[in-house]
Amino acid sequence: MFNVIEVDRLTHYYGPRQSLDGLTFEVRQGEVFGLLGPNGAGKTTTIRLLNGLFTPTSGTIRVLGLDPARQGEQVRARTGVLTETPALYERLTARQNLMFFATLSGVPARERAERVNWLLEQFDLTARADDLAGAFSKGMKQRLALARAMLHRPELLFLDEPTAGLDPEASAQVRDWIAEVTRQEGMTVVLCTHILSEAERLCDRVAIMAPRRLLAVGSLDELAQRLLPGQRLQVELYEPCSIDFPRLRALPGVLGVETGANPAGPARELVVQIKDASIVPDVASALMQMGARLLRLQPEHVSLEDVYFKLQQSAEEVRA
Ligand code: ATP
Questions:
Q1: Which among 83, 104, 111, 211 would be 20 to 30 A from 35, CA to CA?
Q2: Which protein residue's CA is at the shortest distance from atom 10 of ligand 1?
Q3: CATH assignment of 229-301?
Q4: Cβ(38) to ligand 1 under 6 A?
């Protein structure tokens, strides 16, 4: 797998004010990569640098093997960008908008109509293709803007807050389309979002930023293992049972056992703190040997939100 983006010690200033401080990360071909962080962290600035709209103060960037600061046009010919505010002509229809931008972005004349029709279909806009974009709802405009960004079959797509300001239903639709269309077209995607559940659903790996710098990069599993080691395993028994707690605690990989009830009496529910999921079968067989009849054995899910707030909290403690 090759890296579509390679960023090494990237630093950028707006005049005297530093906006990015030593960012290093890579994005692999075909993945959806999330760029997450609070307002003003530097996500949009990073996207602009990756597209060659700004020049780094120091550090290097390679996008599709090119240097965006010197080869910006070549980079932009192979990438698509959805900015926070969709750039569309309100007085043109959806189809006219797409035909116009298809011409601008160099889609060959004989392919334009077919490409536009396919995208209108993919984004569920065929029935409204000949209505003015100005009459569209915010969600429809966003879908049209996404279709626009994908006209020239970009190898790499930058999506800056693609669901900002949309209602939950429109957001879910846009998310589904992103997942589906990028999968079909095999694109690499860089997604900036504040919505952690959105990133968790769409991203293979994420970079989590604090203002100006990167706090961590990895998949949710990797970050969870690194930042929140150990896992909670919820156990529910079919009927109360006397548990041999010392024996359970002594199992390799078991870090602790909690029970809400009197530990001396029979238990019906307990929480076992384990090193990782490989310990679950051992806990199950130990409990069964103690005569327990298992009803439910469920490792608690660590969410991207858990990881994100853990990182931001640690960063604040370092700053304090
Ligand atoms: P948001 O989530 O609010 O969009 P962001 O993570 O995308 O934020 P940026 O827009 O990249 O953050 O901004 C990073 C920092 O750079 C902020 O402090 C911002 O005020 C500053 N900044 C952004 N654009 C400019 C500009 N054109 N001139 C000067 N400073 C800027």
A1: 104
A2: 44
A3: 3.30.70.2070
A4: no
Q: How far is the CA of 43 from the centre of ligand 1 (A)?
A: 8
The domain 3-225 is placed in CATH, from the list 3.40.50.300, 3.40.50.720, 2.40.37.10, 3.30.450.20, at: 3.40.50.300
Q: Where are the CATH 3.40.50.300 domain residues in the chain?
A: 3-225
Task: In whole angstroms, give the CA distance from residue 65 to residue 81.
Answer: 18
Is the CB of 44 inside a 6 Å radius of any atom of ligand 1? yes
3-state SS assignment for residue 124: coil
CA distance 115 to 119: 6
Asked whether the predicted pLDDT for residue 86 surpasses 80, the reply is: no
Q: Which atom number of ligand 1 is nearest to the Cα of residue 84?
A: 4
> How far, in Å, is the centroid of ligand 1 from the Cα of 212?
10
Residue extent(s) of CATH 3.30.70.2070 domains in the chain: 229-301
- Contact 71 CB / ligand 1 (< 6 Å): no
What would the pLDDT profile of 140-173 be if each residue is shown by its tens digit? 999 999 999 999 999 999 999 999 888 898 899 8
Q: Can you read off the two tokens belonging to residue 227?
A: 């930042």
- Ligand 1, atom 3, lies closest to the CA of 39
φ, ψ of residue 263 in degrees (nearest 5): -60, -20
